Amino acid sequence: MAKIIRVWDGTQWQVVGSALPDALTVDGTQTLTNKTISGANNTLTNIPNNALTNSSITINGSAVSLGGSTSIISLPSQTSNSGKYLTTDGSSASWSNVTNLVPTDSK
């Protein structure tokens, strides 16, 4: 059965002819290869991450899948910590005072 080509004339669909056997249709399932599709002008759905060239982004050395989420640990506030240095106990970051180190004479 031949597919019919219809064109919207602003008020109604007009039949303008029959489609070729491999023509794209509104309700059919077709595979597009080597085509450029504008995401701004189209709705793309049901595309799995493994079908994308870039299926993840890297944040602090860890891959995060597109559509996924991650937690980014924030640093403590810099307010009122001028002249201090950032340190960690292995779990959380904090500011510490810089201690003046006076070199000693080893003689």
If you had to describe this structure to a student in words, what would you say it looks like?
The protein is mainly β. It is 0% helix and 25% strand. The protein contains no helices and six strands. It has strands at residues 4-8, 13-18, 56-59, 62-65, 85-88, 93-96. The strands form three sheets. It has a two-stranded antiparallel sheet with strand order 1-2. The chain has a two-stranded antiparallel sheet with strand order 3-4. A two-stranded antiparallel sheet has the order 5-6. Strand 5 and strand 6 form a beta hairpin. The protein starts with a strand and ends in an 11-residue tail after the last strand.
Helical stretch tally: 0
Percent range of helical residues:
under 10%
Write down the Rg.
Answer: 31 Å
Order of helices and strands: EEEEEE
Count of individual beta strands:
6
Quick overview of this protein structure:
With 107 residues, the protein is an all-beta fold. 0% of the residues lie in helices and 25% in strands. It has a two-stranded antiparallel sheet with strand order 1-2.
Descriptive keywords:
107 residues, mainly beta, two-stranded antiparallel ribbon, 25% strand
Give a topology summary.
Layout: E1 4-8, E2 13-18, E3 56-59, E4 62-65, E5 85-88, E6 93-96
Antiparallel strand pairs: 1-2, 3-4, 5-6
